[in-house]
Amino acid sequence: MKASVYYGKNDIRYEDVAVPEIEDGDILVKMKSCGLCGTDIHKAQHQTVTGPVVLSHEIAAEVVKVGKRVTRFRPGDRVVTAIHVPCFSCHYCDRGHFTLCEQFKPTNIEPGGFAEYIRLPELHVKHLTHKIPQGVSWEKAAMVEPIGCCLHGLKQAAITPGCSVLVMGSGTIGLLSAQLSAMMGASNVIVSDLSPFKLDLALRLGINHAINPAQENLEARIGEITDGLGVDLVVIAAGVSSLLPQAVNLLRRGGRVVVFSPFDQNNMVSIDAARFFRDEISIVGTYSLSSYEMPEAVEIISRNRINIDEMITHRWPLSSLGEAIEFAANPQHDVLKVIMQMDD
């Protein structure tokens, strides 16, 4: 089979690799669409993984073979899946912190999403794999996993009807989080970003306000929009640690910051710590998704509860993965979500 294999920065090879062998509880799927995630771009550009490795996990695929014990799926089924499975019984799982489970990160698909055929291990088949509803395209189905990640994060946010939400960063995760916040009842959703293209797209998606902090004073604009109260929630969807102290300053009393993006570990910032006691604010982190968000994300896609079509801006053949990563990583390009597809 064919796969785009990452060996190092600027060294991604479209080559023949072995088709994975499945066991009795596994299924083998053929990739139809696979999203290019921001983590894929980061890994390839900053060499945070050691090659050779097949990246990605935002998969929509067709079942081609099932193990003897598999009863929920059969060849020809259209499915989506995700990448990590918790144990459901440890200290963290018992308390609902599934992504902190020791089993979570070691579980994986084989070899990765940027391959022609992928083995979904038994745990993934049981807990993470779902059929794609009729009428949902392959490329829209590939957005199920990132939607699930955003749902997982927003569950930390305690969104209530009528609240105000600021999303800092208008990439795929930011614009999904903004749309989902509105879907959950937020009446005033604001995004900030430096990209005019992404800000224009946010407005086309129905976001109430789109602010470029290089051209406007963000704190002043938030004050105008919220009548001086500040926002109920800030979602940080960009890996810029300096956004954290600004997010804290933009919160109303009792507000919450949800940190979605990873920050540079060596970049320390100072925040107004007095606000924790004086104003009862909170800061929470979020990572990945649990098994419970997958069916929710499938339902959102199937009912068109948010606008996915306009978010998918580019499609590339799998053989051109290296070119697609370079294109998506260039801030000069008007690009949001890239979907990789098998070559014709």
Automatic annotation (TrEMBL):
CDD domains: iditol_2_DH_like
Family matches, as InterPro entries: ADH-like_C (IPR013149), ADH-like_N (IPR013154), ER (IPR020843), GroES-like_sf (IPR011032), NAD(P)-bd_dom_sf (IPR036291), Zn_alcohol_dh (IPR050129)
Domain of life of the source: Bacteria
SUPFAM superfamilies: GroES-like, NAD(P)-binding Rossmann-fold domains
Keywords annotated in UniProt: Metal-binding, Oxidoreductase, Zinc
Matching Gene3D superfamilies: Medium-chain alcohol dehydrogenases, catalytic domain, NAD(P)-binding Rossmann-like Domain
Name of a matching Pfam family: ADH_zinc_N
Record GO terms (molecular function): metal ion binding; oxidoreductase activity
Domain Enoyl reductase (ER): 8-336
Protein name: L-iditol 2-dehydrogenase
Lineage, opening ranks: Bacteria, Pseudomonadati, Pseudomonadota, Gammaproteobacteria, Enterobacterales
